[in-house]
């Protein structure tokens, strides 16, 4: 029997994991957990391809993965079986059969991330895993003025720790900052992102809000191509992969 290609959407709390990518038998990652449960179901090792390599501590509401399963099983039954074997902080929110050529990584057209900043005095313990807490004043208007400098295709060398050998030109198709009660929500969409890129954008905007960086200086930071010129890397817990479009 020819293996069928399955496409799943994953939601997970990344707090206890070292990101998506499998590392070794002793390091907890999301991909490792997915491969573990599929091996139980298929009785053999199954290769899993993910749409994104999230960093340690980063969350997901919409990461997509695919795999070819050597056993025939209905998608709804597979979803139920996987969720019954996965830890409670990882869930398959959708499961379907896919075209044999579908590849979650190379077929992705755009990804949308959200970074959340809570500005209230006391952060609830029920929310602490999902937001960065900044109770100090932030100049939100200045942060919004800075947004336009990140849109379009640019060399993001000043906003990544990726290897210098990697092409660092990336395109941000949409970026916005909105306020919802005591929370600021930064949304960034683009075809692909460099390592820590969204967290470094968030950290730089936070420094703009604190008055440490002037919004008008952002173009100079891009031109410098020097990671030391931009803001600190914002904590992973505030970042969530919301959606992957194909």
Structural overview:
The protein is of the alpha+beta class and 246 residues long. It has two domains: 4-97, 2-Layer Sandwich (Alpha-Beta Plaits); 110-245, Pseudouridine synthase I, catalytic domain, C-terminal subdomain (Alpha-Beta Plaits, 2-Layer Sandwich), CATH 3.30.70. It is 22% helix and 29% strand. A hairpin with a 2-residue loop joins strand 9 and strand 10 (183-190). Helix 3 (140-147) packs across helix 4. It is globular and about 60 Å long. The mean pLDDT is 95.
Keyword list:
246 residues; alpha+beta; Alpha-Beta Plaits; 11 strands; 22% helix
Q: What is the element layout, followed by pairings?
A:
Layout: E1 4-12, H1 30-42, E2 48-50, E3 59-69, H2 75-85, E4 90-97, E5 110-118, E6 132-133, H3 140-147, E7 152-155, E8 169-172, E9 174-180, E10 183-190, H4 197-210, H5 218-224, E11 239-245
Parallel strand pairs: 3-11, 5-6
Antiparallel strand pairs: 1-3, 1-4, 2-3, 5-10, 5-11, 7-8, 9-10
Helix pairs in contact: 3-4
């Amino acid at each position: 029997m020819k293996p069928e290609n399955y496409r799943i959407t994953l939601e997970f709390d990344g707090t206890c994991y070292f990101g998506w990518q499998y590392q070794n038998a002793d390091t907890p990652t999301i991909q490792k957990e997915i491969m573990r449960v599929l091996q139980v179901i298929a009785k053999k090792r199954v290769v899993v391809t993910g749409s994104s390599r999230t960093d340690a501590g980063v969350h997901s509401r919409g990461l997509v993965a695919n795999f070819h399963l050597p056993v025939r099983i209905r998608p709804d039954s597979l979803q139920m079986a996987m969720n019954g074997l996965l830890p409670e902080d990882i869930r398959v929110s959708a499961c379907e059969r896919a075209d044999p050529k579908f590849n979650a990584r190379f077929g992705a057209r755009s990804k949308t991330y959200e970074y959340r900043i809570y500005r209230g005095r006391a952060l609830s313990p029920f929310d602490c895993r999902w937001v960065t807490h900044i109770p100090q004043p932030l100049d939100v208007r200045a942060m919004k003025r800075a947004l336009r400098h990140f849109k379009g295709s640019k060399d993001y060398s000043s906003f990544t720790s990726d290897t210098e050998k990697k092409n660092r030109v990336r395109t941000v198709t949409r970026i916005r900052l909105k306020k919802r009660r005591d929370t600021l929500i930064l949304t960034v969409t683009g075809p692909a992102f460099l390592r820590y890129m969204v967290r470094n954008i968030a950290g730089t905007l936070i420094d703009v809000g604190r008055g440490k960086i002037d919004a008008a200086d952002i173009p100079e930071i891009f031109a410098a191509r020097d990671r030391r010129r931009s803001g600190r890397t914002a904590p992973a817990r505030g970042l969530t992969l919301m959606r992957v479009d194909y």
